[in-house]
Amino acid sequence: MAGRLIYLIGPSGSGKDSLLDAAREALAARDCRIVRRVITRSAEAKGEAAQAVSVERFDELQAQGAFALSWSANGLHYGIPKEIDQWLADGHDVLVNGSRGHLPQARSRYPSLWVVLLTVDQAVLRDRLLSRARESAEDIETRLARNAQFADDLQVSDPSLIVLDNSGALEQTVARLLQRLARAHACA
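User: That's the sequence. What structure does it adopt?
Assistant: Structure tokens below.
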């Protein structure tokens, strides 16, 4: 039986990378693979534990067909390695840190994917984005407005989506993620 693609999305600052790091061991014990993205952000940059590459190298990898999914957002390029297709074919569930904006393309390629939307209170999100100091205050306010609209649109269009609030303790969010995946017979 083929595995399931679990597509984690949420705004920058919602804690997707923290959630993945905190849940990694428990998910691995359930034979769920967590994919490390390829990203054109410096390896020294604060943020996710991704494989950092130059834009030129990213373009080479993309031309070689190395990505199952790829997109650009906020001046960066992101790729999900093609090895997920083999993992899925071998029956492993695979969790990826995806993109809200790329969700239609991901659904087109993987029609049965499950979407996990990580949300966070807007005030908490604002504080997290400000503390990272990657963007101007104006850019952060634009992100917050876009986030509010996107979350509303997605929840209306996909009532089966798994929504997790990460405004509180990370341990609680990890526990809820594991419970929801188990109920859905994914990573179980």
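Helices lie at 16-29, 55-63, 83-89, 103-109, 122-132, 137-157, 170-183.
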